[in-house]
Amino acid sequence: MNDLVTIHEASMATGVSAKMIRHYESIGLIAAPVRTENRYRHYAARDLHELGFIRRARDLGFSIDDIRHLLALWRDRSRSSAEVKTIALRHIAALEEKAAALHAMSETLRHLAAHCHGDNRPDCPILDALDTLR
Question: Using an 8 Å Cβ cutoff, are 7 and 18 in contact?
Fold first, then answer.
């Protein structure tokens, strides 16, 4: 058991919180870890590697379903890269769509703020735009 680490050590090594490690276990994203007689979770190097993979995938904004699929592909050494690329390209398209929506929101707010006097007068085009009953 010398090569096993506690959940705290796994968290420190991978940057994944203990709470998220337990969550990933509960949803079957990672396998249940080795449990000692006192029921403490202990993780092997393979588990840490998978947790690091998951953290990096989450950092890139992949969904849990996509991460589950990517993990399965990663574990399958006989897989082709075509399916992986398809998942990545689909995610890129979704990110670009979100970025465009955020840019549009920013431009709308920029326009409204430019037309707001920002003084003691009650007139405010920002509030007027948010008032859907007008």
Answer: yes
